[in-house]
Amino acid sequence: MPRSRVVTATLSLLAATAILVSGCGTEADTSKDSALLVPELNELLPQKVRDAGVFTVATDPQYPPCDFTNDSGKIDGFNHDILMAMAPRLGVEIRQEAIAFDGLLPGVQSGRFDAAMECITDNVERQKTVKFVDYAYATKSVITTSENKRGITENPLTACGLKAGVQTGTEFVQDAELFSKNCESEGKAPLQITNFPTAGDQNTALQSGRIDFAFTNTATGVWQAKASNGQFKIIPSPLLSRTYVGIVVGLQSDDTAKALLGALEAIIKDGTYDKIMAEWDLKDIALDKPGINLATERPLDVPKVCGSCGS
């Protein structure tokens, strides 16, 4: 990755600045390449989007390499690159808007945004309120400081009784609860869980020692460890599942979902998607067959209480 991306990503991870959640946006008018336009996909988009020529996607740019703010103040990341590749197939400009993570789904539900994209986990519970157009896999890990003073390992029982951080509105809240249940099943103390409004707040707490560890997207954690010159340690866990991540649209937005799926299929077919994932060193989470609500349609294994599994 270019050095400028790493430097800015570190800043966004370690300090949650106000500008990141103030609603600033970035846009790239890539819709003018008529040779790439797929008319039937454009026709599936809402009339208001076609009239304006703009499709608005909300994100929380604090999760490199998913989404972050680069040195130019623009939203960057592999999600951004995927969207910009999809735009000419749809025949509209895709414009990203930055807000806090816990506002992403409500923003789509209310109609404020046409969609949201920020490595958002597709799960059955969320499918009750929104629809997912899945474009990649994601894995999750535990993140702690490089010293790992508490001796956390892949064995989830080594986390029992420790102070854990999770970001509000993320699936990590449920992951922490599963860890606690696993501890209690073995007669051990549950996690002491603290919720943080932003990833920056969580990482500051981790560095200062207010929490012992946190939960993170593996790709984000690896990026963070590299960008901080090894200040963090990433630890896999059998209690953390492999999941799908998707572009979120409204629950009744069937045609929009089909349009986005068609655009994804188009960039996969012509090799653009693979090039993007290779550029970001993310070939291991590439999804060659995207789909809608795959957590239901093609469910993955869900971790369960397992005691000292991973030891």
Automatic annotation (TrEMBL):
Name used for this protein in its record: Amino acid ABC transporter substrate-binding protein, PAAT family
Pfam families to which the protein is assigned, alphabetical: SBP_bac_3
Top-rank taxon, per record: Bacteria
Record flagged with keyword Ligase: no
Signal peptide, first to last residue: 1-27
Domain Solute-binding protein family 3/N-terminal: 54-284
Coiled coil: none
Record has Amino-acid biosynthesis as a keyword: no
InterPro entries: Solute-binding_3/MltF_N
Keywords: Signal
